[in-house]
Structure formats: C-alpha cells, structure tokens
Design a protein that fits this description.
Membrane topology: Single-pass membrane protein
Number of helices: 8
Structural class: alpha+beta
Strand content: 15-25%
Order of helices and strands: HHEEEEEHHHHEEEEEEEEEHEH
Strand order of the largest sheet: 1-10-14-12-11-15
Low-confidence stretches: none
InterPro entries: Beta-barrel_AprE, HH_AprE-like, MFP, T1SS_HlyD
Shape: elongated
Helix content: 40-55%
GO biological process, one term: protein transport
Radius of gyration: 56 Å
Family: Belongs to the membrane fusion protein (MFP) (TC 8.A.1) family.
Keywords: Cell inner membrane, Cell membrane, Membrane, Transmembrane, Transmembrane helix, Transport
Distance between the termini: 46 Å
C-alpha cells in the first residue's frame, strides 16, 4: 500500500486537533491519548493565528493607500515682489513711507514736484477747450442751427473759468458774425434778382406795347396801300408808315432780347446765391473735419499729460510691506526708470512651489489634489492642508547649487484651508512637504509591488 503524503498527514493531524475536546471538557477517549492535554491550547492558538492572518489579509486587500509624488517645497505668493519705478523721473517733494510700513492699494508712497506737469496739463487743456468750442460752432453752422450748443462740461466750466467763458463767448460772436455775413451776401444777390425780374417785367410791357403798335401800323399800311392803288394816297406817306413799322418791330425785338438777357442774369444770380452758400458749407465741413482731428489729438495729449501729473504721486499697486526704500532726500532728483522701492504683497493667494523629482513627474497632473505639511510648525498640532496643483513646469530646471534636475509644481491653498492656520503667521519662503496624489492602491498591492516588479523584470529578461 502506498504511504500517505505529507499534506495528507498534516490534514489528518489538523482535523484531530480540531476534533479534540475543549479545554476542561471530560475525557471520552478513555485516557489513552498522550496529547489530550495539549490539543486544546494549540487549537485555540491556531484559530487565533488563522483569524489574525485572515483579518490582516482582508484589510491589506481592501485598505486604500494614497499614491503620489512626494516633494519638498516652499511657500510663495501668487505674484513676486512689486518693484516700484517712475517712468519720467523728477524732483522728490515728499516721502510718505518707510521700510516696514504696510500699505494698501492706492496709498501714496512718494510725491514728486508737479509744477511742470501741472503747467503742461493746463496748456493742453486750454487748447482742447478752445478747439472743442470751435467744433461746437462749426457743427451748428453745418447743421444750420439758430444758435451754438456747447458741451455741458464746457458750459459748466465757463461758470468758474474766465478763459473758457471768453472762448465760448468768442465762438458765439463768430457764429453770429459769419451768419450775418452770409445773409448779407445772399440778400444783395436776392435784391439783384428782384431788380432783374422787375426790369424783365418792364421790358415785357414794352414788348406788349410795341406789339400793339405793330398791329395798328399794319392796319394803317394796309388801308393806305388800297388808297395808293386807287391813286388817293401818296407813296411817301405809305413809305413813312412802313419805316415806322420797321422801327417798331426793331424796338420790340430789342426788348425781347433784353428780356432774355435779364432772365439769364436772374438765373446766374440765383446760381451765385447757391454757390455762396455751398462754398460756405464746404469751408465749414473742411474746417470741422480738421478741428475734429485736432480735438482727438489734443484729447490724447491731455490724457498723457494727466497721466504724467497723476504719476507725480506714486501709489501702491497692491497691499503689502515696504522694503528696499531707496529715497531719503527731499529735493533729490530721480532719473527716469529709477527703482524707488519694493512691495512684498500681502493677502495674496498662497502657493506652495514643490520640487518634483524627474522620475515622479508622470504622477503629477494639473488639478491633482495635494497634501501640504508646513515644516516650521509642530506637526502634531497642525492640520494637513489640502491644495490643488495649478501649474506644472513644461521642462526641467537645474539646481544651481547641486546641479540636480527637477520639475516645479505650484499647489494653491484655498482660503478655507488657510483658516485652519489661525494663530500661525505664514511667511513667503517657509519650507513644506508636499504629497501630490495620483491615485490609490491597497496595502497588499504595496507589499507585493516589489515582488511583482521583480518577477516582471525577470520574465522580460
């Protein structure tokens, strides 16, 4: 007979252990088994070991662990230090801050002497006001208005500014004078038309009279010719009447010619009236076009001059702390583009800039969740901050000190997370540890990972 295998013997022995009476139970075997006193504790131990391994195995198979890239980093602000410069330069009139001062957006930092800038603005503004008044007058002339309508802001300014008031008054007077001049020219031409028409009417009356005379002469000549034919009238008398008829016809023709000439002059005069008006309108349109362009140019100059004046008061662009103040002397001259001071922004979005090892970059994605631990604080009392990856460098960078290549990832910490740090002061440059999550895996996968990787490499080899 074939001997039982080792596995069969172990199975039989294990079943015997399980079948053994419980500890303290009466012995029903007759007391011949030497292992009766040890089976129960061993069985209990095996059960405990089995339950422990099964429990740990189940936990390892299902308990999740975060997977991701671990990196070191530091706190940075959303924008770096703001370098405050002055475009034009100038003479320092007032220094309103010192190093360490906290400023808000719009606070005055430095004041420069504004005499020159203010004078330039006033010159350009005066020219602009004058041309705008000129433009309003030309617009009224173009549209044939009865009076000039100036912009409301000019009307308001004229109440307190004598120069503007004079400019508006001068344009009103010019409007009236030009309007009267054109009317005078057209009135003269209209009178000439009236005179020519009256002359034409007189000539027409003369033509009518001559026409009647010709009819009368024609009758007389006809009668005289009959008498002459019978010998009752002299030939000289007949010839005299015929000469009179010819003269009358000539006079009538001259009057008709004069009427035609007069009518032609009426047409020419009326055309001259139209030409006078048209020439005036063309001049107005041309002047208006030129003036409007000048107004645009002066408006740009005024805007630039106003900006120059406004820049004589250097203001803070962001909230922050003053550092690196370079000005200390009132009346000192600063050159264009000179750096005056710097502002370290405050209350900006805090970011953690993490250094990602090159072999971990595949685990870093935009929008990924990240855990941040700030190293200067006690870790047992400080909560883990949760952030989100908002930027990843497109290429590797090189550490100038060590020559090591790395990627950078910016992790933004929300306001809700920052509130967890009440009582703790956050300072740019503060070191931190960052875990950028890329997924989850179980404890069992973590424990078996090296083995499966080794087997995979072995099979590939």
């Amino acid at each position: 007979m074939k001997a039982p295998s080792l596995f069969a013997r172990m199975k039989t022995r294990f079943q015997d252990f399980l079948a053994a009476p419980a500890l303290g139970a009466p012995d029903v075997t007759g007391g011949d088994d030497p292992y009766a006193d040890t089976r129960s504790p061993i069985r209990i131990g095996l059960i405990i070991i089995l339950v422990t391994f099964v429990g740990l195995g189940g936990w390892a198979a299902f308990a999740p662990l975060s997977q991701g890239a671990v990196a070191s980093g530091k706190l940075i602000v959303e924008s770096q230090r703001k370098e405050i410069q002055h475009f034009e330069g100038g003479i320092v009139a007032k220094i309103a801050v010192k190093d360490g001062d906290r400023v808000r957006p719009g606070d005055v930092l430095v004041e420069l002497d504004d005499t020159r800038a203010r004078a330039q603005l006033q010159i350009v503004e005066g020219q602009l006001d004058a041309y705008r008044a000129f433009e309003a007058r030309l617009t009224a002339e173009r549209d044939g208005l009865e009076d000039v309508t100036f912009p409301a802001d000019l009307e308001a300014k004229a109440q307190n500014n004598e120069e503007v008031a004079k400019s508006l008054g001068g344009q009103r007077d010019m409007f009236t004078a030009r309007k009267m001049a054109i009317k005078s020219q057209t009135d003269i031409l209209d009178k000439r038309v009236t005179q020519l028409r009256e002359m034409s009417n007189g000539l027409r009356a003369q033509v009518q009279s001559k026409s009647e005379q010709l009819r009368t002469l024609a009758d007389e000549i006809k009668g005289l010719q009959e008498l002459y034919a019978k010998g009752y009238a002299s030939k000289s008398r007949l010839l005299a009447l015929q000469r009179s008829e010819a003269e009358t016809a000539g006079e009538r023709g001259k009057y008709l010619s004069d009427i035609a000439s007069s009518d032609m002059k009426v047409g020419e005069t009326r055309l001259e009236v139209i030409q006078v008006q048209k020439k005036f309108e063309e001049e107005v349109v041309s002047d208006l076009r030129t003036t409007q362009q000048k107004v645009l140019d002066l408006t740009e100059q005024w805007t630039a001059a106003r900006d120059v004046l406004n820049r004589t008061r250097v203001r803070a662009p962001v909230e922050g702390i003053i550092v690196g103040l370079k000005l200390h002397t009132l009346g000192g001259v600063i050159n264009p583009g000179t750096r005056l001071l710097e502002i370290v922004p405050q209350n900006r979005k805090l970011l953690v800039q993490a250094k990602i090892q090159t072999h971990d970059i595949d685990q870093v994605q935009m929008g990924a969740e990240a855990e941040v631990r700030l190293l200067p604080f006690k870790q047992r009392t400080l909560p883990i901050l949760v952030g989100q990856v908002t930027a990843v460098s497109a290429d590797t960078l090189e550490d100038e000190r060590t020559g090591e290549s790395y990627y950078t990832a910016n992790v933004e910490i929300s306001e809700d997370q920052i509130k967890k740090l009440e009582g703790h002061r956050l300072v740019p440059g503060m070191p931190a540890d960052v875990i950028i999550k890329s997924g989850e895996y179980t404890v069992l996968q973590y424990l078996l990972g090296p083995l499966t990787d080794s087997l995979a490499r072995a099979f590939r080899g």
